[in-house]
């Protein structure tokens, strides 16, 4: 294994960089969309439950099946992978965002309303600061989930660490299978550990 890494370092670090790039793009788009949906849900409890339920249904669909459904529309590659990853993340983010906001003590929000705050001001100045732990938990879960599902995206030519695994399985190359598994698991475990420590500090 070490010999392979020394001989073909580009075949390991390039897929790793692709995976991290896919993670960042997905996370940024996921947070933007989840933030917009969260703002919408503060005006309707029914809409909040409907959105969480809808994305829970999407989240229950196997990733390869969802990739296959989108391929006729967006083709093979990273675009399809990122769309699917963003959709999956909405359930994790929206559920944690809304639960965190709803758990804020009603007495505090009533006090804010009493001094003339509107719903948006309550959200930004009171609810978000008081629910930052739940929000951060949602982000951490979304990051780890993205790393794992993005590995499967290699089967639709999206690149990333899954390409090492895919190539290893196709050629029955144990070294590639092991390196792909180690890098994917290491990235997920390492990222989760870092984010967990940040969450504890919050």
Question: Could you characterize the architecture of this molecule?
Answer:
This protein has 202 residues and is mainly α. The chain is built from ten helices and no strands. Helix 2 (10-41) packs antiparallel against helix 3 (45-60) and helix 8 runs antiparallel to helix 10 (174-201). The radius of gyration is 20 Å and the shape is elongated.
Oligomer: single chain
User: In sequence order, what are the helices and strands, one letter per element?
Assistant: HHHHHHHHHH
Number of strands: 0
Distance between the termini: 39 Å
Helix content: over 70%
Q: What is the gyration radius calculated from CA atoms?
A: 20 Å
Query: For the report, how would you describe the main beta sheet?
Result: none
Q: What does the overall shape look like? A: elongated
Strand content: under 5%
Mean pLDDT over the residues: 87
Q: Return residue spans where pLDDT drops below 50 for at least 5 consecutive residues.
A: none
Count of individual helical segments: 10
**Class computed from helices, strands and strand pairing:** mainly alpha
Which features does this protein show?
202 residues; single chain; elongated; mainly alpha
Quick synopsis:
By secondary structure, the protein is mainly α. 85% of the residues lie in helices and 0% in strands. The chain has 10 helices and no strands.
Present the secondary structure layout.
Blueprint lengths: L1 H6 L2 H32 L3 H16 L2 H12 L3 H25 L3 H9 L4 H12 L1 H21 L9 H10 L2 H28 L1
Helix pairs in contact: 2-3, 2-5, 2-8, 3-5, 4-5, 5-8, 6-7, 8-10, 9-10
């Amino acid at each position: 294994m070490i010999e392979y890494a020394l001989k073909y370092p580009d075949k390991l670090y390039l897929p790793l960089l692709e995976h991290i790039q896919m993670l960042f793009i997905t996370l940024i788009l996921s947070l933007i969309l989840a933030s917009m949906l969260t703002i919408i849900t503060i005006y309707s409890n029914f809409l909040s439950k409907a959105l969480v339920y809808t994305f829970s249904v999407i989240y229950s669909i196997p990733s390869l099946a969802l990739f296959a459904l989108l391929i006729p529309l967006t083709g093979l590659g990273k675009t399809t992978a990122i769309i699917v990853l963003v959709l999956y993340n909405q359930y994790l983010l929206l559920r944690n965002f809304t639960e965190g906001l709803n758990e804020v003590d009603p007495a505090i929000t009533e006090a804010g309303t009493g001094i003339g705050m509107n719903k948006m001001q309550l959200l930004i100045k009171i609810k978000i600061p008081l629910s930052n732990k739940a929000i951060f938990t949602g982000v951490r879960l979304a990051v780890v989930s993205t790393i794992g599902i993005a590995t499967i995206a290699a089967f639709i030519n999206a690149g990333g660490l899954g390409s090492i695994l895919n190539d290893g399985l196709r050629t029955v190359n144990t070294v590639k299978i092991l390196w792909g598994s180690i890098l994917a698991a290491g990235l997920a475990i390492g990222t989760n550990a870092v984010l967990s420590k940040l969450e504890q500090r919050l």
